[in-house]
Structures are given as C-alpha cells and as structure tokens.
Structure to design on (74 residues):
C-alpha cells in the first residue's frame, strides 16, 4: 500500500491510498485519477507538466526523466 499526500496552497491535505508497493504504479494510478477528474492540480492550465499534451506523452511513464513531481491539489 502506498499513501500519497497532496497539499494545496491553502495547506489543505488530501490523502490517497493505492493498493500497490510500486512507486511507479502509484504514480500511474495518480495520473489515472487526474485523467478521471478526481484530482485537480493547481496551475494545471499554466504548467506544461500538467497539460493534456504532457499527459499523453508521459502519462504511461510518469517516472520518465521529464517528469515534474510538483504534486499539489487544488
């Protein structure tokens, strides 16, 4: 089980739990949650790391060298 804590700019904490022991799989599941609208990133409209083109390119491999791990919830 991997637990992900997302913190908003207002210091609100959201905890997500993924039934996996793989960090890469947990990142993929987090990206899937974002695709499904369960997670909304602050600055997702202005940061290339959170736009649809980035997601299509790196969504299946969020641990790629171009991955930007700035994960904050809105």
């Amino acid at each position: 089980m991997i637990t992900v804590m997302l913190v908003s700019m207002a210091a609100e904490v959201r905890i997500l739990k993924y039934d996996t022991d793989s960090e890469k799989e947990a990142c993929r599941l987090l990206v899937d949650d974002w695709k499904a609208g369960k997670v909304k990133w602050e600055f997702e409209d202005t940061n290339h790391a959170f736009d649809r083109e980035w997601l299509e390119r790196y969504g299946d491999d969020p641990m790629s060298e171009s991955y930007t791990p700035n994960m904050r919830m809105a």
Helices lie at 23-35, 52-58. Residues 22-67 form one domain. Residues 23-35 form the longest helix (13 residues).
